Amino acid sequence: MGLLINKKLLALSLAALLAACGGGGGSSSSDSDTSSTDNGSGQGSSGGQGSSDDDTPISDNVGTTVTVGDVEVTNLGFASLTAVDLTLPEAMNNAREVYQMAHYIARTDGEQDQEDIDIPIRSYTATCATDTETPRMFVSTSLSEGSSAADTTYGSVYELQYDPSTSSFEPTGNATLLRQCSESHGIAASADCSTVAVLCNTDYQASERYDVQGDLVEQYGSTWMKMEDNIDTIESRITNEIGLLVATNHSKYINFFTGHATLTFDDFLAGLEATFPDTDFGDSPSFTTIKGAEMQEEMEYIISNLSSGNYDDLLQHIRDVSYKYNEQIWLLEWENQTLSEVPDAYVVNKMHGGTHLGAQELSYVEEDSQDRSSYGFSVSARVFDGYGNSHYSAGLTVIDRDNWSLDMSSSDNRGWYWACGDGHVVNIRSFYNPDSELYGAICTSDWNDWIGSTHGQLGTIAIKMEASSSSTEGRFNHFVPSTSVMVSNGGGHTVVPVDADTNLSLIVAPKYIETADMDRFLQDEVGVDSSGSGPFDEDCADYDSTNCFLSYMSYNYWEDDDSFPTISRQGLYSGDALEPNSLTRIGIAKVSASGSMEGQGFNWVVEDNDCQISDPQLVDLKNGRYLLGYAKFQCISDNLSFDRIYANRGSKRLLVPKAFYIMEIDADMNVLEGPIELPNYGWGGLDEPMYMGDGKVAWTYIKNPTYDSYGGGQQNVWQAMIYHSNSAN
């Protein structure tokens, strides 16, 4: 894409427009002002659960856009946004999101079928040369050969460069289509842009068919990490203990017998009764009653009496149902190369596969104070056990870039392959704090051993740091309503470092402790007068060594009574209408370098008493300010049925926002500017914009991303956007 106008004239026009955007004062009207005093209420008497019935209003103000040449310039009052169209590599469409992908208030299986899913798969960005006048951004986007879910998909990487004369991006022509990858995910770049790396999803045993520089999993991984398939285990069990295999996997295999065209249980009953005279088969024996490990011998008898044809059919049924294969993840690296050249490839994960639950993010540390160079990435993954079964969790992998090695087991381990949170990990996002020089991850799981189902099933939002063990969970930050099948309402989005001792934890969560219940707990159990003002977490820390929210939940666990209830259902699937208790909001908490938030609570920076709020973004502007973005979804006032998941295509309303908003805050969550609505610009709910230097933040996304003007989830022309904060001036 070339800019086909006089750049000198364009630069003068843009300079006038950007100057007209003003500076300092926000553009919110007085009736939608979000002062820091109001926004502090989430830290008040309810200890991070919110003590005021007042919500944080969503601004009615919308930025105004003009077009100069090929550049759209939007005046936001306290900032400006420039956007240009760009054609994806080889003019291909982006790939659509995968089935069962977890978002914060919905999952893509709510649209019933893969063909119904109409949102883009996550894309990733990395910026470099941010200390120059022409910073650059590398983008990783998965592409599709067509518009069907069945079409072949590939990874891709392309480069954009900032043009000061237009205050926008231009493609450099440096791009590649990764045909060896079914998808490309996290991307990272060195400060000077000389090194670029991307995570590439490949298929089962791909490293045996392509040249790779190293298989780090085989060299350094644990036994579980190396188990790429369960075929040998299943075959061994067929040979040695087929009766036990079928009996203990009853739900997977019994339909072979119950649905068989000719087999009936009566064919085997007389022989069973004669062979096992001490067994009471009951008044109505059937194939379904032969189950469990204790029934191994009975199942073996039935199988041994099958005809040879039926026996072969049973084995094929077991193989069809039980054979599973993990994908591989490769790290591709270009060092002083153009993207069209062949990158070095390293196998870094063999546990990924099955339901595509989480994002795969990549960070690169060129050199730390110990002269270490490293990559860190996170991924939700499937691992096979010795019985051929599989389980889900998530891992943080830290790669020693100096010698291309992993260490996940010694006393000096960096990273872990398992157990970020108890249960299935719905979402994981890695981060790196350059001041503490530690990698970590924020995880959302669908279960926790602490609260369990005592007061409604609650999944965990936890932070786990790189030195943790693969057998331990992270540090709890919050809980979200969930089910044991990876359905959750809310979750952890990202962690943004402030300094060596402090990070900001950004989450989406509903309010599932009533304000009156929290106030009563504080008064009756903690001895705090909740009618007062100011944060009460210090009092709760004295009471139970933690903040007020976790103190409330801890009381429920230890006392095991109903004195202080939680709201249990919250429409995790669907309902007649959206309920107030299912409304989500955006919270930020200060956490320590270890991920602990003891003595601190979540400040609910954005909440609304009518609509669900989700898809947050938080980016450090490097000047004491942070860009906070969020989206508004369906509202109670819409008077529509609450189709969230396993429902119908109405669930798209929870995957495509009505509107996107931005604001600027400080590290204490005081609102400095905004919020203001973007005029039909947005971002992917799981994407993350990147800082680009001098008050600039950059990202890419589809055109027309809001529900009323939605341009469709697959497009070959996207927009590259840059936010310019006036605070940089």
3D architecture notes:
This protein is of the alpha+beta class and 729 residues long. Helices cover 16% and strands 32% of the residues. The protein has 13 helices and 35 strands. It has a 6-stranded antiparallel sheet, with helices on one face. Strands 4, 5, 6, 7, 8 and 9 form a 6-stranded antiparallel sheet that branches. The chain has a 5-stranded mixed sheet with strand order 10-11-13-14-12. Strand 19 and strand 20 form a beta hairpin. Helix 5 (231-248) crosses helix 9 (296-304), helix 5 (231-248) crosses helix 10 (308-322) and helix 12 (537-544) runs parallel beside helix 13 (548-559). The longest helix is centred in the N-terminal third of the chain and has 18 residues, at 231-248. The two termini are 30 Å apart. Mean pLDDT is 87; it is low at 1-13 and 20-54. Keywords: Signal. Residues 25-63 are annotated as: Disordered. Residues 1-19 form the signal peptide. Residues 28-40 have a biased composition (Low complexity). Residues 41-50 have a biased composition (Gly residues).
